[in-house]
Amino acid sequence: MDALSEFFDRIHMNGRLFYAGTVFDTLDINKPDGTAFIHIVERGDLALIRPGHPRIELDGPTVLLCPSTCRYKLQPTTEQGADILCATFEFGVSMGRSFPLGVTDTLVFPFKDIEPLVPVITALLAEFRVQGAGHRKGLSVLFEYIFIVLVRRAMEDGMIARGGLSAILDPHLGAAINAIHLNPEQDWNLRQLAELACMSRSKFSAQFLKVVGVSPIAYLTAWRMKLARDLMKQGVKLKVIAASVGYSSQAALSKAFVQEMGLPPGEWLKRQD
Question: Which of 86, 189, 211, 257 has the most crowded CB, counting CB atoms within 10 A?
């Protein structure tokens, strides 16, 4: 099984263009938790300014990947400004805060370091300029592919060593997480998940918390709530949702939902309009 593909399919990842143009003044990025960004710097020079970090000069075409919890500024270093194309990925919002992706800083990829992706980026830029029929979907697909390749590259290079993405590919933790993803309705307990990971309960709990950032049961609950919210948006009845995501009754689901989200399912759904 391709665990990473399975994960992206289940979270309904969707990349959307949110800005394109020439930046002449400082662009202040202060994104909400759970939203990822890709910035493609096509032309011009920029400085990446992050609180508590050295200033980084971006010299020439570069891709910036910000999977989670990033705050930074992009500042042109010449009067000519810089041409950029930006996409946002909002899968983190639908997943809630219990799914840390393991990156708390912006990752920088000069074009020369990602040569296999350059033709795809070129195709994306051409699609943006032509804007023919279906261009919005075309841009989304290309952005998503770029995102996946950059995440894979970052994990191979050790840039992403913690969080849910890293755990999915872990030879031990991945078995437990994939079981949760595939069968959220099962009455999982710590012993069963630890056995899937071929670890003792104490070692499994400690390693899961270290890598993912939350406990195994907290992850299970958050995943169930993510699926429940998806089904609620589709108009599925709460009684049916409860059985689908592992709760014995509608009341049990509602109680867990309030604990996770801070408000009842019906009130949450109203606020999505």
Answer: 257
